[in-house]
Specification:
Length: about 190
């Protein structure tokens, strides 16, 4: 309340690129693959492929989707039949590998992507926005960051003859002597008239 006015506080971007929303998405997609026993293991891969737009991620999404669809089809076809032990081990091994592989690849790739500077910008930011750009903080000397700084105009100097020691003083003395003579003559003329 008292003292110089303070500059408005500029909201600082989060220091860590892994904000609460991003962490929630990581957990949600990981749990989606885990709790569905691998049938939805393609969901985190799809999100990763959409976000990164890399060909490798699209290929891995396609493979994950085909394996999950194959498992779902196998479970539907053999629904009431009693599987053999070997079939059970293979099916469970494929499900575990699918879940563990998709979650691990999703988390590692997403965390690396978020750790790179400039790569964590959300897609809804306007073009040309640089989240890594420095934020300017006003200096304490200028409390109003929106006011223009007052810059005095440059002084215009008339060209001076080269300085000769004592020359300027002699010139001023001579002019003062002339002025004294003129005033003396004027008084004498006024006194006679």
């Amino acid at each position: 309340m008292y003292g110089p006015p303070q500059a408005p506080q500029v909201p600082q971007p989060p220091k860590s690129p892994a904000s609460g929303g991003r962490i929630a998405l990581l957990v949600l997609f990981s749990l989606l693959a885990l709790l569905s026993c691998g049938f939805l293991a393609w969901a985190p891969m799809l999100r990763l492929a959409i976000v990164t737009r890399r060909a490798l991620d699209w290929v891995l999404f396609g493979l994950t989707f085909l394996v999950a669809a194959g498992l779902f089809t196998y479970a539907g076809v053999t629904g009431d039949e009693e599987p053999t032990t070997a079939e059970s081990f293979v099916a469970v091994g494929i499900m575990v590998a699918l879940v563990a592989g998709s979650i691990t690849y999703y988390l590692v790739t997403e965390i690396r992507r978020l750790d790179r500077p400039g790569a964590a910008a959300p897609a809804f930011l306007p073009p040309g926005y640089d989240p890594g750009a420095a934020v300017t903080v006003p200096s304490p000397g200028n409390p109003n960051p929106y006011a223009r700084p007052v810059v005095p105009p440059p002084a215009v100097q008339s060209p001076q003859p080269p300085a000769v020691p004592g020359h300027r003083i002699d010139q001023v003395r001579a002019e003062l002597d002339e002025l004294s003579d003129l005033l003396r003559h004027k008084r004498e003329d006024d006194g006679r008239a």
